């Protein structure tokens, strides 16, 4: 949302919140990677006034750095904190105590954490993340599968072995992020004809993730974030302008997610 479309204009926070609420979204992510703590504290009351539920995305560079975010999220009434951990041991054996320390901290603070499947963080690699899931049964994920499609340079059709790996990720995920990737680009334009094969792949994964979530949860809210980042996530032409309207694309993904959910209810 900063900016939200090809104009490059960054709307005031009040206008962003109003635009999101009027479009029928139920909440909005507050991302410490893109927004200062001071601004997040300014935005949250605007969201509360608009009836939007926040969740926080944090990039802690030390174990203890996560604690203030957990406390802020609890004050905000957030359902969880998404962790993109910047403590990155080279070995899985070194990663295990880091993950456990953050989980123990979340339990002590009374605020759940979900570890996002994301590049350049402790869950950078699909295979090491699968090893972490085996080693730490209480570890729960926020699934942004776009990172692993690019990270593993997956080809279509996806080999069954890789599909099984992604199913293991989805089965441990308690929230989902909507972005369509290809093997060399993390964020594809949704309406380009050459990208439709990837769109259908991701729709299938989202349906699988939601189906698994429903099987595990008799009640509660399944959180699906329409996450389309600005440049350099969004591709640009030679004039530096984005090649698609991310606000319109986010509304498209919102509609797809709602249709998938309603289909599962049927």
TrEMBL record:
Gene3D superfamilies: Divalent-metal-dependent TIM barrel enzymes (3.20.20.150). GO terms for molecular function: isomerase activity. Residues 17-152 form the Xylose isomerase-like TIM barrel domain. Transmembrane segments: none annotated. Keywords: Isomerase. It comes from the Bacteria. Coiled coil: none annotated. This is Sugar phosphate isomerase/epimerase.
